[in-house]
Amino acid sequence: MPMTMVVTRNVSDRTRGFLASSMLELSAGVYSAPRLSAAVRKRIWTVLEEWWPYERDASIIMVWHENKVPAGQAVKTLGIPPVDLIEIDGIVLARRPSN
Question: pTM for the whole thing?
Fold first, then answer.
């Protein structure tokens, strides 16, 4: 069960309360869970996706340890350009789509 982090910006009180009920809020909008199972992590993300249409000018990013991706860190985002971690010549880079 890997460490999971969620960072939010301008989300509703409903979203903040939900995240605080399942993870530790380390600072305003920064949530952490040291041993969150994949099933619980997926459920949290599903709820965030379902509530996303009701957010305004907000963003959410979730990161966790994942052996099968470059740098061993998986990323999911809502509200900001998606981030893909790619490995080029042994260097891990964050790729965002161009506008």
Answer: 0.81
CA distance 33 to 86: 25
pLDDT-derived band at 94, boundaries 50, 70, 90? confident
- CA dihedral of 9, 10, 13, 15, whole degrees rounded to 10: -50
Place of tokens 């907000």: 58
Averaged pLDDT, 32-57: 95
**The predicted structure's pLDDT at residue 73:** 85
Radius of gyration of the chain (CA): 14
Amino acid present at 86: I
Question: Is residue 19 a contact partner of residue 25, using CB atoms and an 8 Å limit?
Answer: yes
Distance CA 3, CA 35 (A): 5
The CA-to-CA distance between both ends of the chain, in Å, stands at: 36
